[in-house]
Design goal:
This protein has a domain at 63-199: Tetracycline Repressor, domain 2. The protein is an all-alpha fold. The chain contains nine helices and no strands.
Length: 209
């Protein structure tokens, strides 16, 4: 009979993932090794192998958990909007705020999602990509509900990705100890995006006048 896992097992995995994500961000995923991750965690490769058999296994668990968290952000925004009876634009702001709140504490994981998914095996990579597609589709739904007259089959992908472009790269310049907080930035993004959709008359096939 297999020995039951320690109550600290999942906690230790979380610590390993934090360390590994930092190593991947600092060194790049291809350059980082199991020895590097072990050393950064003050342990041995043999001890690390007790939790993960390979660097690839660490990367998959990292991205698996993170993409599930992003989907949970969407679910939480929907639940909050329903509970507080928010209108569709307020619900969209709640979603933007939720993403930026998550990004504030997950910068290295976000780096791995953007840069390292391609290093997974085919089946695992497709699972993560499917989750990313689910996130994009959900954001498109929020946008369509907030601005139903602005979205068409021709422009919805571009407009959705414009919103992601405003928030997905904040890890490169927005500092947690800076004057502009992630919470405040959510308001700025909402104001800019909402103001643009409310004021700009979109023309086809161009997206701006």
């Amino acid at each position: 009979m297999a020995r039951p896992k320690s109550s600290q097992h999942d906690l230790r995995r979380d610590e390993i993932l934090d360390i590994a994500a930092q190593c991947f961000a600092d060194r790049s995923y291809p350059a980082a090794s199991m020895n590097d991750i072990a050393a950064a965690g003050g342990t041995s490769k043999a001890r690390l192998n007790h939790y993960y058999e390979s660097k690839e296994a660490i990367l998959f668990d990292l991205l698996d958990r993170y993409t599930q968290r992003l989907l949970a952000v969407i679910g939480q925004a929907e639940a909050t909007a329903q509970r507080r009876d928010l209108d569709e634009r307020a619900a969209l702001h709640e979603l933007i705020r939720g993403f930026l709140q998550e990004y504030e504490h997950s910068a290295t994981r976000h780096v791995a999602l953007l840069h390292d998914t391609k290093f997974l095996g085919d089946q695992q990579r497709e699972l993560i990509l499917d989750r990313q597609r689910d996130v994009v589709s959900a954001v498109t739904r929020f946008l369509k509900r907030a601005y139903p007259g602005r979205f068409t089959a021709a422009n919805q992908t571009a407009l959705t990705m414009m919103l992601f472009g405003m928030i997905n790269w904040t890890f490169t310049w927005l500092r947690p100890d800076g004057e502009l907080t992630h919470e405040a930035l959510a308001g700025v993004v909402s104001d800019l995006f909402f103001g643009g959709l409310g004021a700009v008359q979109l023309r086809q096939p161009a997206l701006i006048p």
